[in-house]
Write a structure and sequence with these properties.
Helices cover 36% and strands 26% of the residues. The longest helix has 26 residues. Helix 2 packs across helix 6. A hairpin with a 5-residue loop joins strand 10 and strand 11. It is globular, with a radius of gyration of 25 Å. The chain has 14 helices and 23 strands. Strands 3-7-8-14-11-10-9-22-23-21-20 form an eleven-stranded mixed sheet, with helices on both faces. A five-stranded mixed sheet has the order 16-15-17-18-19, with helices on both faces. Strands 4-6-5 form a three-stranded antiparallel sheet. By secondary structure, the protein is of the alpha+beta class. The chain binds one RNA strand of 77 nucleotides through helix 1, strand 11, strand 14, helix 10 and helix 11.
RNA sequence: CGGGGCGUGGCGCAGUCCGGCAGCGCGCACGGUUUGGGUCCGUGAGGUCCCCGGUUCGAAUCCGGGCGCCCCGACCA
């Protein structure tokens, strides 16, 4: 598999990327370039992501709600770091209803402020806490430079917002949601993400601490795939989110926020995609199985389609997402390639020979070409397919993990770090530098601290740069 | 904003140097053929060659001016 094939810039990749998934830029009206158009198939992948996350959110007691798209400019300005961080990328509405507005409205880049305003009304007592809210929404950030899926001016996401009575509880929530993101990424999306804390420079505007899951794409660039922020009391103070404690004293809440966006669709594409197109993890795939009927004459056609109908029913009854490619006028070979491009995990071929023998051909997408083909009996097909899907899910994760681990290296000195990241790999190194030194590294190597990973099984070498405070293990990489 | 590149049918492009009928591949429509790895053949629809001006008998092509987009960098999920 060539790494070239799965970069957003590669010709091979973009050919089907645009056709199959979506195009990031509107061709005609230039002012909205970089906005998002998600075609149906791509949107179904997003719906798979939504389902996986929503199930987990419900299990942890979070409830969905919806807040306004427009935020009064004054709200944004109320938290000093927040406004400073987001100002350059805000889209602002100045006119509405044919008149100039008294106060401009910001198109939400994120909703801490407007939700904070609501929270201050909703929360009166410690009995109202914790308040656990999630919103599925679109947001707009006017980036200078957009990239298909990985950075669009408008994107869809979920943003969670919670308020708690204690700092410890807020921290626990922040970490719990990061864990949920990581669990989702690893188990559902088959992306072996690394959990960690962001450096001060990369922290969310207005947060105390920001945690991240970092994924390695097939071109070895890092992709922040989800974030969870402990906001401390910064927003509670800015928006007067207070409660009456059991002690009968007014206290400020401790709040958190966390988000995961359509960028995750890009992460799936660029983690698993190969020269032939997408490879979708079964848990997210819109179609887990596609059945391609094969027949030569009308007499065969009826028998084949009858068998196919029966198999479709069995698989559907077994709770599997199955699609039958009934298109006329395309050869089986065409359909094989077509569904491989779309990344369907299992293709089932049913022809006259299979009808006769009671067998079926299964082709797994995770293995290249014909290597993924096997003959199975139609009896017990549901169980066979289920096991195969589980195996594909597992193998995609293992592939990605092996690839990732092969491209993370320990750096004992700054020279080593530089050499590693300039060659495109990730470097683990002890870090005790300050902001200025971190910026200097970016300037010199193009790499940034992706995170300070939580798990540090092995101790890295000597300090890369010395500074005040103790050194932490940091992960350096070039990122999207 | 700095550096590079490109604007030609729905998509991808050739043609531009050296002016002479607007082309190719894919896709689309129709007919036939084929169907176990991207069938083949035929017919057809589809164009402001980015815009404005100039040179010329004649401009996609040359000259002048303008506009737009993409890529790399700075900002960032």
């Amino acid at each position: 598999m060539s790494e070239q094939a799965v970069t957003a810039q590669s010709e091979d990749f973009s050919r089907w990327y645009n056709e199959i998934v979506y195009r990031a830029d509107l061709a005609a009206p230039s002012p909205v370039r970089g906005c998002v158009i998600i075609k149906p198939y791509g949107y179904e992948i997003w719906e798979g992501i939504k389902a996986g996350l929503d199930r987990r959110f419900k299990a942890t007691g979070h409830q969905n709600a919806y807040f306004p798209l427009f935020i009064p400019e004054s709200y944004i300005k109320r938290e000093a770091q927040h406004v400073e961080g987001f100002s350059p990328e805000l889209a602002v509405v100045t006119h509405a209803g044919g008149k100039e507005l008294e106060e401009p409205l910001v198109v939400r880049p994120t909703s801490e402020t407007v939700i904070g305003e609501a929270f201050s009304d909703w929360i009166q007592s410690y009995r109202d806490l914790p308040l656990l809210i999630n919103q599925w929404a679109n947001v707009v950030r006017w980036e200078l430079r957009t990239r298909p899926f990985l950075r669009t001016a408008e994107f869809l996401w979920q943003e969670g917002h919670t308020a708690h009575a204690s700092e410890a509880e807020a921290e626990e929530e922040t970490r719990q949601m990061l864990d949920i993101y990581a669990e989702f990424a690893i188990e559902d999306a088959a992306i072996p993400v690394i959990k960690g804390e962001k450096s001060r420079l990369e922290r969310f505007a207005g947060a105390l601490r920001t945690y991240t899951i970092e994924a390695m794409m097939r071109d070895r660039r890092a992709l922040q795939s989800g974030t969870s922020h402990n906001l401390g009391q910064n927003f509670a103070k800015a928006f007067d989110i207070r409660y009456l404690a059991e002690s009968n004293l007014q206290e400020y809440c401790w709040t958190t926020s966390w988000g995961l966006s359509t960028r995750m669709v890009g992460a799936v594409v660029m983690t698993h995609g190969d020269d032939k197109g997408l490879r979708l993890p079964p848990k997210l795939a819109p179609h887990q199985v596609v059945i391609v009927p094969i027949y030569r004459r009308d007499a065969q056609r009826a028998a084949v389609l009858e068998a196919v109908d029966k198999l479709q029913c069995q698989l559907q009854d077994g709770g599997l997402r199955v699609h039958v490619d009934r298109r006329e006028g395309h050869s089986p070979g065409f359909k094989f390639n077509d569904w491989e491009m779309r990344g369907v995990p299992i293709r089932m071929e049913i022809g006259p020979r299979d009808v006769e023998s009671g067998k079926a051909v299964l082709a797994r997408r995770d293995l290249p070409g014909r290597a993924g083909k096997q003959f199975v009996t139609q009896a017990g097909i549901v169980e066979t397919v289920r096991e195969l899907l589980a195996d594909i899910q597992r193998s995609l994760l293992e592939d990605a993990r092996a690839f990732r681990d092969a491209h993370i290296q320990e750096a004992g000195t700054y020279a080593e770090l530089r050499e590693i990241v300039e060659a495109g790999d990730w470097a683990r190194a002890a870090w005790a530098g300050d902001d200025a030194q971190e910026l200097a590294v970016k300037d010199e190597t193009g790499a940034t601290i992706r995170c300070f990973p939580f798990a540090q099984p092995e101790e890295p070498g000597a300090c890369v740069l010395t500074g005040r405070g103790s050194a932490r293990v940091a992960l350096f990489a070039k990122a999207y």
